[in-house]
Protein: DUF2809 domain-containing protein
Organism: Devosia yakushimensis
Amino acid sequence: MSQSSTVFSLRIVAVVLIVTLAWDALDPGAGPSPLFVLASYFLLGFVCAAAFPGQVWLGVTIAVAAALTFEILQSLVPFRDVREIELIGKWLSVSGGVILELVLVFVRDVRERGR
Protein backbone atom coordinates (compact mmCIF):
# COMPACT_ATOMS: atom_id res chain seq x y z
CA MET A 1 0.00 0.00 0.00
CA SER A 2 1.49 3.36 -1.00
CA GLN A 3 1.89 6.23 1.41
CA SER A 4 -0.73 8.33 -0.40
CA SER A 5 -3.36 5.59 -0.14
CA THR A 6 -2.51 5.07 3.53
CA VAL A 7 -2.87 8.80 4.19
CA PHE A 8 -6.18 8.84 2.31
CA SER A 9 -7.42 5.86 4.37
CA LEU A 10 -6.38 7.57 7.61
CA ARG A 11 -8.25 10.70 6.59
CA ILE A 12 -11.38 8.64 5.91
CA VAL A 13 -11.03 7.01 9.34
CA ALA A 14 -10.64 10.46 10.91
CA VAL A 15 -13.84 11.68 9.23
CA VAL A 16 -15.73 8.57 10.39
CA LEU A 17 -14.46 9.06 13.95
CA ILE A 18 -15.46 12.73 13.93
CA VAL A 19 -18.97 11.94 12.65
CA THR A 20 -19.37 9.14 15.20
CA LEU A 21 -18.20 11.33 18.08
CA ALA A 22 -20.48 14.16 16.91
CA TRP A 23 -23.40 11.75 16.86
CA ASP A 24 -22.59 10.69 20.42
CA ALA A 25 -22.17 14.28 21.60
CA LEU A 26 -25.48 15.42 20.13
CA ASP A 27 -27.57 12.40 21.14
CA PRO A 28 -29.52 13.18 24.34
CA GLY A 29 -29.90 9.48 25.11
CA ALA A 30 -26.26 8.51 24.60
CA GLY A 31 -24.51 7.17 27.62
CA PRO A 32 -21.34 5.28 26.71
CA SER A 33 -18.84 4.67 29.45
CA PRO A 34 -16.45 7.55 30.10
CA LEU A 35 -13.49 5.24 29.50
CA PHE A 36 -14.83 4.37 26.03
CA VAL A 37 -15.34 8.05 25.22
CA LEU A 38 -11.81 8.95 26.33
CA ALA A 39 -10.36 6.05 24.33
CA SER A 40 -12.29 7.26 21.28
CA TYR A 41 -10.83 10.75 21.62
CA PHE A 42 -7.35 9.25 22.10
CA LEU A 43 -7.83 7.35 18.84
CA LEU A 44 -9.06 10.54 17.16
CA GLY A 45 -5.89 12.38 18.17
CA PHE A 46 -3.70 9.51 16.98
CA VAL A 47 -5.46 9.14 13.62
CA CYS A 48 -5.65 12.88 12.90
CA ALA A 49 -1.93 13.30 13.61
CA ALA A 50 -1.10 10.31 11.39
CA ALA A 51 -3.43 11.48 8.60
CA PHE A 52 -1.41 14.62 7.95
CA PRO A 53 2.26 13.63 7.70
CA GLY A 54 4.43 16.71 7.39
CA GLN A 55 1.48 18.83 8.54
CA VAL A 56 0.93 17.38 11.99
CA TRP A 57 -0.33 20.70 13.32
CA LEU A 58 -3.25 20.53 10.90
CA GLY A 59 -4.21 17.12 12.29
CA VAL A 60 -3.75 18.35 15.86
CA THR A 61 -5.93 21.39 15.16
CA ILE A 62 -8.69 19.25 13.64
CA ALA A 63 -8.67 16.76 16.53
CA VAL A 64 -8.60 19.37 19.30
CA ALA A 65 -11.20 21.56 17.58
CA ALA A 66 -13.50 18.56 17.18
CA ALA A 67 -13.14 17.55 20.83
CA LEU A 68 -13.79 21.05 22.13
CA THR A 69 -16.63 21.76 19.69
CA PHE A 70 -18.48 18.55 20.52
CA GLU A 71 -18.29 19.23 24.24
CA ILE A 72 -19.55 22.79 23.76
CA LEU A 73 -22.36 21.66 21.43
CA GLN A 74 -23.60 19.36 24.17
CA SER A 75 -24.81 22.45 26.01
CA LEU A 76 -27.43 22.86 23.24
CA VAL A 77 -28.78 19.33 23.63
CA PRO A 78 -31.57 18.70 26.16
CA PHE A 79 -30.47 16.55 29.11
CA ARG A 80 -26.78 17.02 28.22
CA ASP A 81 -24.46 19.52 29.82
CA VAL A 82 -20.90 20.74 29.58
CA ARG A 83 -18.60 19.69 32.36
CA GLU A 84 -15.17 21.21 32.62
CA ILE A 85 -13.63 17.92 33.75
CA GLU A 86 -14.98 16.16 30.64
CA LEU A 87 -13.63 18.94 28.45
CA ILE A 88 -10.20 18.60 30.04
CA GLY A 89 -10.34 14.80 29.84
CA LYS A 90 -11.21 14.85 26.14
CA TRP A 91 -8.49 17.40 25.41
CA LEU A 92 -5.93 15.30 27.30
CA SER A 93 -7.06 12.14 25.50
CA VAL A 94 -6.68 13.79 22.10
CA SER A 95 -3.28 15.12 23.16
CA GLY A 96 -2.21 11.65 24.31
CA GLY A 97 -3.09 10.18 20.92
CA VAL A 98 -1.17 12.92 19.14
CA ILE A 99 1.85 12.40 21.39
CA LEU A 100 1.82 8.65 20.73
CA GLU A 101 1.81 9.26 16.97
CA LEU A 102 4.66 11.78 17.26
CA VAL A 103 6.72 9.35 19.35
CA LEU A 104 6.16 6.58 16.79
CA VAL A 105 7.22 8.91 13.95
CA PHE A 106 10.32 9.93 15.91
CA VAL A 107 11.29 6.31 16.62
CA ARG A 108 10.79 5.40 12.96
CA ASP A 109 12.94 8.34 11.83
CA VAL A 110 15.70 7.40 14.28
CA ARG A 111 15.69 3.80 13.03
CA GLU A 112 15.85 4.92 9.39
CA ARG A 113 18.82 7.22 10.12
CA GLY A 114 20.63 4.33 11.80
CA ARG A 115 20.48 2.18 8.67
The radius of gyration is 15 Å. The chain is about 80% helix and 0% strand. Helices lie at 3-26, 34-51, 56-73, 84-114.
